[in-house]
């Protein structure tokens, strides 16, 4: 075992007693509690470096160490490897130090010559040299978290099998969340790792903590992040809606940098060791059963005392994190999807075959629909311009009359019953004509304009003439608007109907009579 290097401050004291105090090596060794050989060694090194006490006193400890204890130079008999390139190569999948050492030996053998007589390091020394090089590269930064500032979320690698009748029917994925300061852990089983699972589990985590942090830090899953950029990651519209609902920010960690969220990485490890490992021998048939089994184990994990710190995760959370969290919103979060649509000329937008009205001033513009389980909201430049109850009837309409133009609002107020009632105020014949006009069409709406045109004739010709014209049209077997209009225009309704006498057949020889057929 190599001897420990002498402390530089004690070395300075030894050189001061030697050069300034003129004491012997034994006296210096007894005074400083070191061996006589050590004094002899370092005094000899100072003399060899041509140093006196004035020079030594003017130097700091680092300079004195470099003058007396210069780093040993690598042996000239061994070829030096490019450990920087070796470190990069090890990042490739399947690459090993053994393969790189063999390539290094082959390269040294090819470069060997009389002018360059070197040999390669042995494998053990080659690996030791690389380990020393790698130690200088690795740096760890201690993250300082503020109370209630960040919540870290992730999914554990292991999953739990779901079985039914002895067959596997699926896997339960384990969602894990951890607070920044206390590390209070939350875990939940979900059917998959879709965006709905991520955000739904996060919403339940916020309910579990009883508040909202300022920042939520996930990984970079495709379900949440559309562009995993190092500097400006792009989140999905649903994630941004989730952040707006809870009045917080979602800031993904850097891709392939788990050290950005060490709290949840540690929590994932604890969940795997203390919860999943204990459930390995149990069988579950549903995600709900898994969550029922997780609940008591999670409570035990959070109340488990720290090994080196006072208290537990639950107690530290109650003291530090919980008071700093923002309040939960009064309304529970609902899953929402967004879709860009354009307003049709009839002041409606379409979603899944059903049409919803929006203000007519937005005709032709592109709107954004926010669709939840029960409602549809139309947004224009971030402002809500319409809201409707969601309807699954394809081909149907959900219309707010106020959204239509003024001239269309009056037309939207007409119904078959109202048209018939107006016709009855004019007369029985007019009401019967309106019914026939509505019945002729496959859809009553197609006859609305003709009915309105018929009823409007009373303004020009009066109710009496219109009733007479409708009676004339009924006697002739027609109910068309154009025929009744022409009757009024040609004043046919004013011509009295002649009384036609009952016709009797004359008696003559060619009439057989009823007796002929008996």
Short structural summary:
43% of the residues lie in helices and 14% in strands. The chain has helices spanning 8-19, 25-32, 36-48, 53-58, 61-68, 83-89, 97-111, 123-137, 195-209, 237-246, 262-276, 287-303, 313-324, 406-412, 416-426, 428-440, 448-461, 463-476, 481-489; strands at residues 150-155, 160-164, 167-179, 185-190, 215-217, 225-227, 234-235, 249-250, 337-342, 348-351, 354-357, 366-371, 375-380, 383-389, 397-398. The mean pLDDT is 82.
Overall description:
This protein is an alpha+beta fold and 518 residues long. It folds into five domains: 8-68; 83-135, no CATH class; 150-324, Nucleotidyltransferase, domain 5; 337-406, no CATH class; 414-494, no CATH class. 43% of the residues lie in helices and 14% in strands. The chain is built from 19 helices and 15 strands. It has helices at 8-19, 25-32, 36-48, 53-58, 61-68, 83-89, 97-111, 123-137, 195-209, 237-246, 262-276, 287-303, 313-324, 406-412, 416-426, 428-440, 448-461, 463-476, 481-489, and strands spanning 150-155, 160-164, 167-179, 185-190, 215-217, 225-227, 234-235, 249-250, 337-342, 348-351, 354-357, 366-371, 375-380, 383-389, 397-398. The strands form four sheets. Strands 1, 2, 3, 4, 5 and 8 form a six-stranded mixed β-sheet that branches. Strands 9-12-13-14 form a four-stranded antiparallel β-sheet, with no helix packed on it. A three-stranded mixed β-sheet has the order 10-11-15, with no helix packed on it. Strand 2 (160-164) and strand 3 (167-179) form a beta hairpin. Helix 1 (8-19) packs across helix 3, helix 11 (262-276) packs across helix 12 (287-303) and helix 17 (448-461) packs across helix 18 (463-476).
């Amino acid at each position: 075992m190599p001897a420990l290097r002498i402390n530089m401050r004690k070395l300075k004291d030894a050189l001061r007693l030697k050069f300034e105090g003129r004491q012997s090596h034994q006296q210096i060794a007894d005074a400083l509690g070191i061996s006589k050989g050590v004094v002899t060694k370092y005094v000899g090194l100072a003399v060899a470096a041509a140093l006196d006490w004035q020079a030594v006193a003017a130097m700091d400890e680092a300079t004195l160490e470099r003058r007396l204890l210069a780093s040993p130079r690598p042996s000239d008999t061994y070829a030096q490897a490019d450990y920087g390139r070796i470190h990069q190569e090890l990042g490739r999948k399947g690459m090993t130090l053994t393969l790189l050492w063999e390539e290094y030996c082959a390269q040294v053998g090819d470069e060997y010559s009389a002018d360059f007589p070197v040999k390669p390091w042995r494998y053990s020394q080659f690996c030791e040299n690389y380990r020393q090089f790698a130690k200088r590269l690795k740096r760890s930064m201690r993250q300082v978290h503020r109370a209630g500032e960040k919540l870290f979320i992730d999914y554990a690698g292991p999953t739990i099998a779901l079985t039914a009748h002895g067959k596997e029917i699926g896997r339960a994925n384990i969602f894990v969340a951890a607070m920044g300061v206390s590390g209070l852990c939350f875990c939940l089983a979900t059917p998959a790792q879709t965006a709905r699972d991520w955000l739904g589990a996060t919403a339940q985590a916020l309910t579990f903590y009883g508040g909202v942090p300022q920042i939520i830090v996930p990984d970079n899953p495709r379900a949440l992040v559309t562009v995993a950029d190092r500097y400006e990651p792009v989140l999905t519209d649903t994630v941004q809606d989730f952040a707006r609902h809870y009045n917080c920010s979602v800031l993904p960690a850097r891709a392939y940098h788990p050290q950005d969220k060490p709290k949840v990485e540690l929590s994932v490890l604890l969940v795997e060791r203390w919860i999943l490992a204990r459930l390995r021998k149990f069988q579950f048939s549903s995600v709900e059963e898994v969550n029922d089994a997780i609940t008591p184990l999670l409570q035990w994990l959070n109340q488990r005392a720290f090994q080196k710190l006072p208290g537990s995760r639950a107690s530290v959370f109650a003291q530090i994190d919980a008071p700093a969290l923002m309040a939960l919103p009064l309304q529970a979060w609902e899953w929402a999807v967004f879709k860009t649509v354009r307003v049709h000329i009839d002041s409606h937008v379409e979603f899944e075959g059903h049409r919803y009205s929006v203000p007519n001033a937005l005709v032709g513009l592109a709107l954004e629909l926010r669709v939840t389980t029960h409602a549809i909201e139309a947004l224009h430049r971030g402002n809500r311009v319409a809201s409707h109850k969601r309807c699954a009837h394809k081909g149907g309409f959900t219309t707010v009359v106020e959204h239509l133009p003024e001239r269309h609002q009056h037309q939207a107020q007409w119904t078959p019953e109202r048209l018939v009632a107006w016709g009855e105020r004019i007369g029985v014949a007019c009401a019967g004509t309106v019914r026939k006009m509505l019945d002729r069409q496959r859809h009553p709406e197609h006859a609305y304009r003709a009915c309105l045109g018929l009823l409007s004739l009373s303004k020009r010709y009066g109710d009496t003439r219109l009733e007479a014209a409708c009676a004339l049209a009924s006697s002739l077997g027609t109910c068309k608007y154009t025929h009744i209009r022409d009757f009024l225009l040609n004043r046919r309704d004013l011509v009295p109907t002649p009384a036609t006498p009952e016709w009797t057949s004359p008696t003559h020889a060619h009439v057989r009579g009823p007796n002929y057929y008996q």
